[in-house]
Automatic annotation (TrEMBL):
UniProt name for this protein: PAS domain S-box-containing protein/diguanylate cyclase (GGDEF) domain-containing protein
Residue intervals of the EAL domain: 24-294
Domain of life: Bacteria
C-alpha cells in the first residue's frame, strides 16, 4: 500500500513537473511570436508603462519604462512572470531591444509635442537592462543606433543595471559603461542593497543614480525595526551618506506612504518613485498625470 501511495505521488510530481515545463515552453513560444510582431502593429502584445520619478518638491524629473505583456489568453502579464523565462531562453535580448526602441521613440514623441512642454523637454527615460542584454557584443552599437534614429538627447537616457551585471565581470562592465558614458548616457544602479553591494566597485562605476531597493523603504515606517530580515532605517542614512560622498543621487524605490516619503526626504534621498505618487501608467495616462502636476 505504501509503495502504491509512493508511486502515485511520484506520478503526481512527474506530471506537475511536465505541466510546468510545458507551460514555460508555451510562454516562451508566445513571447517569441509577440516579439516577431512589428512594433507598431495593432496586434502588438508588448507594451510599456511609465512610472514617474519626482524630487522632494514633487517635480517630475523622469520616468521608468516598465514592460508589460498583454497576452490574448492570459491577460496582462507583469514582467515578474516572464522576465526570468526570457533570461533563460535568451529572448531577453530581443525583448530588451524592443523595450529600448519603444522607450526612446516614446520620449521622442513627448519631446516633439508642444502641448507636453516644458516637462517633456527635460524628462529622463530610465530603461532596465538585463545582464545578458548588456553583455551582448553589439549593445553599444544598438544604443548609438537608437540615439541616432530617434534624435533624443543621450543625456535623457538612463540605463538601469543591477549589481549582478557588475559583479559578473567588473573590468568588462566598466569599459562598456565608460564608452556609453562618453555618448552622454547615464546609469542607475537598480535594486541597491539586495545583491553583493560592494563599496569597492561602487566607487569605480560611472553611475549617476543609486536606487535603494523597495525592501529598505518598506521597513522604514514599520514600528518594529529589530525583527529578523528587517532593514533598520539607519541603513538608509548610511547608504545616503555614502552615496552623496561619491557624488551619486539617491532614488528611493517603492514609496507608498507619506510617512515613508517624509523619512526618506529627511534621510536625504533626492528622488522618489512609488505608488504614493503614481503607479506605472500607460503613455496617455502618464502625459495626463504630468500635465496635471505641472499645472499645480
Ligand atoms: P524594477 O526595475 O525594480 O522596477 C520597479 C518595480 O516596482 C516595478 O514592478 C514597479 O511597478 C514596482 N513598484 C513601483 N512602485 C511601487 C510601490 O510603491 N509599491 C510596490 N509594491 N511596487 C512598486 P514591475 O513593473 O512589475 O517590474 C518588476 C521588475 O521587472 C522590475 O523591477 C525590473 O527588474 C523588471 N523589468 C521590468 N521591465 C523590464 C524591462 O524592460 N527589461 C528588463 N530587463 N527588466 C524589466
Ligand atoms: Mg528598474
Ligand atoms: Mg528597482
Ligand atoms: Mg526592485
Amino acid at each position: 500500500l505504501a509503495k502504491q501511495a509512493g508511486d502515485s505521488r511520484v506520478r503526481f510530481f512527474a506530471h506537475a513537473l511536465q505541466e510546468a515545463a510545458s507551460a514555460r515552453l508555451g510562454l516562451r513560444n508566445d513571447l517569441r511570436r509577440a516579439l516577431q510582431t512589428p512594433r507598431d502593429a495593432a496586434q502588438q502584445q508588448l507594451l510599456l508603462h511609465y512610472q514617474p520619478q519626482v524630487d522632494a518638491q514633487g517635480q517630475l524629473l523622469g520616468v521608468e519604462a516598465l514592460v508589460r505583456w498583454q497576452h490574448p489568453a492570459r491577460g496582462l502579464i507583469p514582467p515578474g512572470a516572464f522576465i526570468a523565462e526570457a533570461e533563460a531562453s535568451g529572448l531577453i535580448v530581443p525583448l530588451g531591444n524592443w523595450v529600448l526602441e519603444e522607450a526612446a521613440s516614446c520620449l521622442e514623441r513627448w519631446q516633439r509635442d508642444p502641448a507636453l512642454q516644458p516637462w517633456a523637454s527635460t524628462l529622463s527615460m530610465a530603461v532596465n537592462v538585463s545582464p545578458r542584454q548588456f553583455r551582448e557584443p553589439d549593445f553599444i552599437a544598438r544604443i548609438e543606433d537608437v540615439l541616432a534614429r530617434t534624435g533624443i538627447d543621450a543625456l535623457s537616457l538612463e540605463l538601469e543595471l543591477t549589481e549582478s551585471v557588475v559583479a559578473d565581470d567588473l573590468e568588462a562592465t566598466l569599459e562598456k559603461m565608460e564608452l556609453l558614458r562618453r555618448h552622454g548616457v547615464r546609469f542607475a544602479l537598480d535594486d541597491f542593497g539586495t545583491g553583493y553591494s560592494s563599496l569597492a566597485y561602487l566607487k569605480r562605476l560611472p553611475i549617476d543614480t543609486l536606487k535603494i531597493d523597495r525592501s529598505f523603504v518598506m521597513d522604514i515606517d514599520a514600528p518594529d525595526q529589530s525583527g529578523p530580515g528587517k532593514r533598520p532605517a539607519v541603513l538608509i542614512d548610511a547608504i545616503v551618506a555614502m552615496a552623496h560622498q561619491l557624488d551619486l543621487r539617491v532614488l528611493a524605490e517603492g514609496v507608498e506612504t507619506e510617512t515613508q516619503l517624509t523619512r526618506l526626504a529627511h534621510a536625504g534621498c533626492d528622488i522618489f518613485q512609488g505608488y504614493y505618487f503614481s503607479r506605472p501608467l500607460p503613455e496617455a495616462a502618464l502625459c495626463a498625470w504630468a500635465q496635471e502636476i505641472q499645472a499645480k
